Amino acid sequence: MNNYLWIGTLLCIVSIVSNQNVTVTYVENGVSLYRGSGLSSGCYLNLGCFPYWCLGNISLCQAGFSLTFWIKAYSDVSPDLDPQVLLTSGGHRTNNEGFYIVRRYSDQYTVGVTLGDKHWKTTVRLASGTPALLAISWARSEGLALYVDGLYQSETKEGENRTGVIVPDGSSACVVLGQSEYYDQLTGPCTLEVSDIILTNSKDTVYGFESDINVTQRLYLGCAAFNVNSPAILTDSDRADPGSFCRLRCSQLSQVYALVSNGSKCGCTNSVGATNTTQCDGKWSVYLVSHVKVSHNYQLTLEWTPQSKRNYTKPFEDIVFNTSVNYNVKVVYKFTFDDGIIITTSTPPVSHSWMTLGQHTLTVSAQIGVVKLNASVVVNVQDVDEGQPPDLIGLTVTHGQSSFNAQCNLTVIDYLISNCVLSYGNGKTSPTFYLQENGSFTFPSHTYDMAGLYSISANCINAYGHKSAMVSFVSRDLRTLHEYVTPLRNYSTLLFGDQSFFNRLEVSINNEKVSFFLADAKTLQVNAGDMHDASDNLIDVVSEGVLLHRHIVYVRSVLDKPVLIADKTAGAWNLTVKLTVLLNSADHVWLTIDYGTKLAGSVKTFYVPEITGMLRVDDTMFYGNLGEYVITVTASNEVSSSRSQMDISVQIPVFDISVRTRNITSPQQNAAFELRVNSGQVIAEDIFINIGIKYGDGAADQFIFKMSDRNYLGSLVANHTYATWGIYRVKVSAMNNISQDEDQTLIQVGENITFVDITATSDRVTVGGNLEVSVVCPTGSNVQYRLDFGDGSVFTFGELNTSYQVVNSSNVVTISETSAVVSHVYSRAGSYKVKVTVSNEFGFMSADLCPAIVVSDNTMQTCSTPTMTFRNIQTSADKPLVRKRSVTTLIPVDVVFTCSGNIKPNVTFSWKGVVIENIGVGKVVERSLYTFCSSKLLDNTLKIDPLALQFGLYKLTATVSPMGNDLSYASDSVYINIVQSEPVPSIAGDPVQTIMLYATAIFDISGSYDPDLETDTRRDLSFHLFFMSESLLKVNQKLSLNSLVAQAELLANRTLFRSTTANRFSLYQIGSCFNSTSRLNDDLSTFLGKITFAANNFASNQFSMAVMLWVERNGLSAMTYQIIEIRSSNASLDDLGSLLDLAKTADPDTAIRLLGGAASAILNQDTSSAEAQQKLAEVSGPSQLFHVYISSLTLFGNDKTSDVT
């Protein structure tokens, strides 16, 4: 650091006292941009706000800044003066930035800079009386440096961190003189001057030569005669400014004054006498080195007070130590005892005792700003036999964790053997304790019989006498006791104590004070009249605020006998008995009803907290068997019990009748109705049941069902024939002399329509030509047909005998059992959509003819009949084109034709399709496929998108014709069989994966799917995961799934996606891939299709393995594989950083395993080399590892943090 300083041209000194002008100059890039002044108010002055200059906004000081000013303190003030902000641009505020100068403790000046989250500061002590020149040099990259009177004083490079700082937009950018630390304006009297403030926007401005501003001349004190031993001889270059050079040399020697003789010699001293400014020939010129103070007037006083006037202190004797400074300032004192005890406090005194003999030292240190103070004292600890009884007996008693238990602590300070006995105040004493060491302890305990006040005394004896101690102990009952009593009974409890003890007692019931009396010397009683009936009474016995005894007393009434009432019906009882129980006023009653069946559920219990008036309980019981039963009702509380009984006889009622039937398709069929009474339950005797049935068409039956030698109610069957089609509501009823029940159902007479289709022999006819369409309707009864030919002609007909029927001149119909053939003649050209609707009593269904019918009146075609072929496709019903459902299928059509005049019009393509279904042995039906119904398209290629067709055999027919030549057409069909695709297996991740041995192995196979499905894409898939050495992969890739399964060892079977698609999963190994199959099964997880287990399950001799996944569905299967490299836990330190990153995102168990392995690797590393030590510090510091470890657990909300210590 350069020890000289360049400041600039010296300006006149301007005070900041009242009514003075203060000047500030701002220089940017060598150019003076601003010079201003202001008149102070008291000691405060705002010199202006500069948000767009480095002067007021430090964030604009890209190259740093330099700041110079003169400061003069009039005289020293009291150190307890509040801190004063002499000059600031906002840096002293919490949420602000800038520079500042603060005065504390009279002569300590702190210079600081704040920017963002950083804070640079340094402190210097300055002498008062004459002006001192202060200069600041700061840059963010180089830190803060302070110069005093042109000489380097101190610096701070890194700065401190500021936490929680938020600098708002528009923060203070003003340069201000004279504020308190709380931002208030300073008022008089003012005690110092600040002048000539110059700030430049570069830190380098401060470097230069001190002589440029002649600071040394200002520090010249005069001349005096000195005898300087071995003065320094100045060089020729130093003699140009001998005073400055000599000041620098004396500053380095920590001297106060610099002496110069004849401009060629330099000496240093710490004291001078009187100086004068005349008659200096042959004398030394005297200069003040700088205004930096090296001495202070603070004094730290340390005093101590022993327990006796002896010149020594005994072991365990407390000594009181007090300390203070000679100024009223806040100081924190640090007491350092030589036995390792350290006490830090701002409010002495403190006490301390030593246990060991010898000379002991106490050192007290304190700090006032940058001034450090120390004081010490020596204490002599000796063990002297003074021929006395025990010095000290300490007896304390606390209450134990259990009732009536006293925990005693007896301390004896004696240099001889002491024999001690405790008296517990109840006539019992302790065994004798022999205490043989100075400062011995014993901890006897005693348990009393009852609560109360006891006097416990200790008596200790040695060879010279005895000493006693006594304490009072309050024995307490820590339990909360519960007691049940009848009304008019007094509350009573036992207590121990004298009369004064009982006089101080207080008794309360439910927090209300009540009176009490003594039945004898130890029995306390409370009148029964003070307790509350039918309520809980919390009774507390308290002595001077201490709870001695707590009881909860429950007053309960004696119960009356309950009354039973049963619901009877006409000389017989239902299987369900309705019972009513009546009970008079009571409280906290348990009511039990026993229905006498000795079966589960036959005993019911009710709790009633309070009964006012009459209690009524209504209940029901279902009896599963006929017979005689005794019902018993018991009412009880804590003080009494009573019961009542009733005999009953149970007969069976009719509680249920049901009717079931099946729909019939024709009125000629017989309808059968199955009737079932009481669900066919077992009974014990013959009964008669009247059964009625109404068939819904006006007919009804009535008959009697009688039990004979059967002991169950079986089913009845009633038959009925309906006259017409329709849906009928059938009602049935069953009754006996005590009960009845009804049921109903619906029956359909006739068949629903389930399918209709319409086809044509040709989709192109001439005007007046015959169009023949066929309507197929294989199901449905009494069907009506409605044909709309699209030209306004609507044809309606019903089911007819097989014959030809001429309906009108345009339509002829032939109808069979399941189909109808209709002929129609169009009178106009055009394109017509034909639609059929079939209906009956139960619904209707429609179908459109595909494609639309083209009717042409142009019999003179200009083009020949085209020839069409399916490009590269030749099919038949027996040899269809086979395509997978998940792929796109293209069917291109090639057309060849000629036209007159060599005209080549566009070709139109019309498509229709049918699905071919096998409905029985040797029976095949074609049903229209409306998905591919299109007319006159210009694209010659039919595109079948993936998943557009279901599985099965289809016939797709194309009709082509030149445009404008509809009757010159050709048609051909292609057969296509849509079959299943192979499933798609997937193992997430790169083809080669690395797994750390102490981590979790994860194989995500959830991406596997069935490409033929749009939803539930994993339905019916089964998964087979094989592990093998990588060397076996090539040969095993050539094997089928069955061959692999045959040679592999099955390790585990699981179910994936259990709540959705429930896929079977099997895990195999080929060779020895795992250490223990049982441990692997315990560790194996398949959650969400991710196969996970601890990597340490892999066999220790396996370093590179192949994982092969086969996915199978309906005999189709596909395979993929992945290579895994297994790395052991002795990974290099270079890998540990990635392990820690992985742990942050892993599941909790994986994170724990990763971090455990990482810690093991760190601890087992060879750190002998400097490079290894550097990596270890960067990657695996214990605090970082623990932080990541806890972060991983917190990230997943894992409560395993309780295991971390």
TrEMBL record:
Gene Ontology molecular function terms on file: monoatomic cation channel activity
UniProt membrane topology term: Multi-pass membrane protein
Subcellular location: Membrane
Domain named PKD: residues: 317-382, 779-847
Signal sequence segment: 1-19
PANTHER family xrefs: PLAT DOMAIN-CONTAINING PROTEIN, POLYCYSTIN-1
Protein name: Uncharacterized protein LOC106063674
Source organism per UniProt: Biomphalaria glabrata (Bloodfluke planorb)
